[in-house]
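Researcher: Here's the sequence for the chain we discussed earlier.
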Amino acid sequence: MKTFLVNGTTETSFMEWLEKGMKEVFSRNGFTLLEDVDEDLRLVLNFTDPKSCRPFRRKAQATFVVSILENEGVMENVFKEAYPYLIRSLSNHLMFVNHDTGTTTFYFLTPEQGCYQIDYKQGDDEARLFQKIYERLEPLASSQLVIDNDFHFDLPEPLWNGDEVSIQLKKSGKKLDKMDLLPAPFPIDEYLTPRDMRHLHKLYGIGGLSYGNLSARQDENHFWMSASGIDKSNMNTIGQDILFIKGYNSKDNKIEVSVPPEVTPKRASVDAIEHWMIYKEHPEVGAIVHIHAWMDGIKATEINYPCGTVELAKTVAQLVRESENPSRAVIGLKNHGLTITGTSLEDIFERIDGKINRQVPMN
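Model: Thanks. This is the structure I predict for it:
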């Protein structure tokens, strides 16, 4: 069921108009407006302001929060102006509404996926504006996150210290670290205070170490993968730094991970669902690398679904399927980065050497 809630208060006539229009467009497109928070709540439109930018407290991880904030004046850099409010409001998305010399610009920002915008002037078609806003937010709000793990302490003893495949993963982690890629498509550390950076790392797991992930096939049904938010240059412990992925439990919507006994496991990367889909469909794929960077002349997703969603995984898997050679594909994730398949990790790093653009194009 598609449900939404409006939270906070609107302080200006423009924001009142915006709230009314967003309520109408979401209701018209099949969303049910709720009066209170419950576990089935899918979308929150959280109206806030710069002076009291407070978070909305979710009851369920599947609740998608869009915070909406109004600003006025010339902006030299939207990231520096707006990004801290995304973090402080603990939102999945920030809609930063800026008025300047007769034009209102709606900037949409997400923790990893960058920024895109819609411009509006008084007298423009209001219905078209609200439909554009809806089309930007609906695919994200309706997507299915796969972020929970089901840990099984049943890893076979011969694998407690890894194998040849996990050793290659460790070596490739050092290569990934040497690429000196940012944890996001723009220099977050220049826009946030140290306190906000700590907050970001705690909430979203995209602090300074999470600049991508990598995996390698172990056999027909299993693969090794780097854990979430770790130092890729120093992956040592099986069950913490390097995880043995067993599969995806669609009934419980969890990634299944096999770990050694008496280990406190770390969470699998949110991209595990994407890697799992690709390995399952393409036996010839031996390794996958995801980085926050870009390459010229590649196919890319049309919608920037959040990482860790079934929808993004299916979209990337489809582009891999449609590529000339699925075992050696380079797929762009809109406003986010790259997913690269290869016959091995060595194959991937050889192919991308000298071809990486550190700046991800935003649109």
